[in-house]
Amino acid sequence: MSRVVRLVSPQVQEDEESVQARPLNGEHLRMAEALLYAASEPVDEKALATSLPEGADVPRLLAELQRLYEGRGVTLVRVAEKWQFRTAPDLAFLLRKEKPEQKRLSRAAIETLAIIAYHQPVTRAEIEDIRGVMLSKGTVDALMEVGWVRIRGRKRTPGRPVTYGTTDAFLIQFGLESVSHLPGTDELKAAGFLEAVPPSGFDVPNPSDQLGPDEDPYEGEEGDDLATGGPDLT
User: Fold this and answer.
1) Which sequence spans correspond to the domains of the chain?
2) Angle, nearest 10°, between helix axes 137-146 and 107-119?
């Protein structure tokens, strides 16, 4: 059986050894470090070589950076034949954070929020009267869970129904100084929410975050009359 023998000339071997023995260019090392640090995606060696000065020894630069960052908070790792700085695996817990779950409001909830914002203080029966349909039990619950609606008082009418209003979180979310800064007729027309000529007798309500003359402050009572739980089917 024949064997293929690879012959390496002494000159080639000496050249390879001299390259390995040659000290790394410190400026090239800093540049490679900066390029990898600023990259939002892993970088391959070809892309690094293109960005670095001609003659830069990319493999040795990467090996040296990997050695320098070994055991530190950030390490240089090779992923999918590319290179990237990443947080050390044992420190990943430090960067873990909880993100609030984004919930989409139903159309009924958005309409109810608008009614509460413009007509506050407003009761459940009044909301239903304005919308023209019954209010699903979960609609107000969803708005209160988001933190945009609160129970603000009780009306001095038979049954003493609770009244609803908006919260500071609502004002912050929509960039309002107070409920009196809600968009008026002109702003609603400009945004396309109202016709150029509104129906006769139409007027934008003047909401207030102060207790009404027929409203008592809410004292945090517990009871079935405050329960609105249930799925929003509207």
Assistant:
1) 12-93, 107-226
2) 70
